[in-house]
Amino acid sequence: MANERPEKDWYRKNRPKKGNYHRRANWNEYQLPRIYMITMVADKEVTPLSEVDWQDGSFVVKLTNMGLVVDEELKGWDARWKELTVGYRVIMPDHIHFILNVRERLGEKFSKVISDFKGGCTRKVRQMLSASGRNVDKLSFFEKNFHDRILTGKGQLDAMISYIKDNPRRYLMKKRYPDLFRRINMMKIDGTELSAFGNLFLLREFCKEPVIIRSHYSEEYLKELRERWRGVSDMGGVLVSPFISEKEKSVMEETLAAGGKVIVIRDNGFPERFKPSGKLFDYCLEGQLLLIGPATYETSRGFLTREKCWEMNRIAEKICNISPETMLSLTGLSCARP
């Protein structure tokens, strides 16, 4: 139509505000003993902190001079603060993850403790760079703020450590297979603003089937549906669903384990540095998975209401009904396979 604006022009005028990825948990008393996984992003002026590469079938992380500054500061940090211990850590090219164990009540605010570490890194790098004649008065080692993930349940510490240990492998896999970890920050489907992460080419498949299981379905009917969904997957089709209920989740798990492809509708968007962890990362790597959620990421979410579930199911059905050609125009995908 003559008055219809191009998709890119619409996005410029309607792009959503980013959710606050760094907001602290308002329910947590940060001075009390607690275990955290801390993530900090390095300023572009000081990156890279490390080089990650393959060596003898595994990965190796080699620290640069900037990375050595971080490593040295982490090693001496808990010596200055008797209340805490720095646990397992990894220094990536542009960010760091580490476990922080606050063993006893802090004598200072948590933000002051974090600022102490960040300030130590900044002072050291300014000393290094000022010798070369650079003006470093306004240079900061890390970007403003940080992200914390609080250990709240049994088994989470092992999961945090596994996530940190696996970070270099995921980094290398994303570099090697970028098309399987593509991201769209904005697309509009039936008036709903969405973002996506994963194998976007799953959207162009001709055979897409929604997976929705109602509580009143009989076991006989559910068996028929499972056979139908299995057939769709075996023929190379894609199953689309929020996969909310336990029965729906079992369909997703069986499909992925058998090498099938799924599109998962999420109830939240994606934080700035999002990447799936655990098995979901490997399913992305195999090109089996696409995640779709709201255009914005919210750190504080309420309960998953029935209305929200209905909306997520509606999006799943809409995605299945949109032609591959229309999907290509909505996402900007070319017709070539990844």
The CATH architecture of the largest domain can be named as 3-Layer(aba) Sandwich
Q: By helix and strand content, what is the structural category? A: alpha/beta
Instruction: Please tell me how large the radius of gyration is.
Output: 23 Å
CATH class of the largest domain: Alpha Beta
Name the helix and strand elements from N-terminus to C-terminus, one letter apiece.
HEEEHEEHEHEEEHEHEHEHH
What percent of residues are in strands? Answer: 15-25%
Helix content: 25-40%
Model description:
This protein has 338 residues and is an alpha/beta fold. It folds into 2 domains: 146 residues, 2-Layer Sandwich (Alpha-Beta Plaits); 154 residues, Rossmann fold (3-Layer(aba) Sandwich), CATH 3.40.50.450. Helices cover 37% and strands 22% of the residues. It contains 9 helices and 12 strands. The chain has a 6-stranded mixed beta sheet with strand order 7-8-12-11-10-9, sandwiched between helices. It has a 4-stranded antiparallel beta sheet with strand order 4-5-1-6, with helices on both faces. Helix 2 packs antiparallel against helix 3. It starts with 6 loop residues before the first helix and ends in a 7-residue tail after the last helix.
Write the layout of secondary structure elements.
Blueprint: H1 7-14, E1 34-41, E2 50-55, E3 58-63, H2 65-80, E4 84-91, E5 95-102, H3 110-130, E6 147-150, H4 156-176, E7 182-189, E8 192-198, E9 208-210, H5 219-234, E10 238-241, H6 246-257, E11 261-265, H7 279-285, E12 289-294, H8 306-321, H9 324-331
Parallel strand pairs: 9-10, 10-11, 11-12
Antiparallel strand pairs: 1-5, 1-6, 2-3, 4-5, 7-8, 8-12
Helix pairs in contact: 2-3
